[in-house]
Amino acid sequence: IDGNYPEALIDGVYKNNLYDLNYENIRFLVNRYYKITHEDVIKHNNYTILKKNIDSPLYWYVMSNFEKYVASYISFCEGSIRDVEKIALEIINDKSLSEEIRKKYTSLYNGEITNLNAIDESMQKDCVANKIISCTGSNITEYSKLYGFDSNLVSLINSREILFNTISPSEKHILFENVVSANDLEISASE
After folding, report:
1. Burial tier of 36 (Cβ tally within 10 Å: 0-12, 13-18, 19+)
2. d(CA 49, CA 169)
3. 10 Å Cβ neighbour count for 106?
4. How many CB atoms within 10 Å of residue 131?
5. 187 pLDDT exceeds 60?
6. Cβ contact 114:85 at 8 Å
7. What is the pTM for the complete model shown?
8. Do the beta carbons of residue 79 and residue 130 sit within 8 Å?
9. Residue 116 pLDDT more than 80?
10. Diameter of the chain by CA atoms?
């Protein structure tokens, strides 16, 4: 689709979903119908844009071809996805998508998920491995209860500063027990 055709033809193609879900078409339609022209926003916040326009034909076309759309989004995001957390969780937790697509999305996501329990259990290890989980006492404790202090958790902790004043006394006890047995930790913390 491009602007070189009569408006009625473009509108008909758009409203009847007679186009491929690729970057060029999505960009053109987002420019034309959502009035968003900033390339970075289109490339890196695409699903967030669509979720703000749920009454549009593009949104409904995407929803009926979601796996194809997410695969396309992954291919045109240039290695960086910045959807807002709530929107990112929709993709990460969508079991209708292949595990491969969901894992690739998490590897490209540049935001932070604040609550480990908001993530489907099948994706928690990948989210911790990709360091997109907030490094809070509750997330560390919850993850360690399920998976122990594995290399993913140790790497997450080593990459961030933990604010110990955000950890409850019971979480501190569990964390302390696990830290004592984790040889690879490099603890740097603030009170």
Report:
1. middle
2. 41
3. 21
4. 14
5. no
6. yes
7. 0.86
8. no
9. yes
10. 70
* DSSP state for residue 38 in the 8-state scheme: -
Q: For residue 171, is pLDDT > 90?
A: no
Distances (CA, A) of 172 to 78, 133, 142, 156: 40, 19, 12, 17
189: enclosing H helix or E strand: strand 189-190
Task: Tell me the CA end-to-end span of the chain in Å, nearest whole number.
Answer: 56
Q: What type of residue sits at position 164?
A: F
> Residue 47 gets which letter from DSSP?
H
What residue has token string 């292949």? 98
Please classify residue 124 by burial: count the beta carbons closer than 10 Å to its beta carbon, then call 0-12 exposed, 13-18 middle and 19+ buried.
buried
DSSP codes joined into one string, 73-117: HHHHSTT-B---HHHHHHHHT-TTS-HHHHHHHHHHB-S-BS-GG
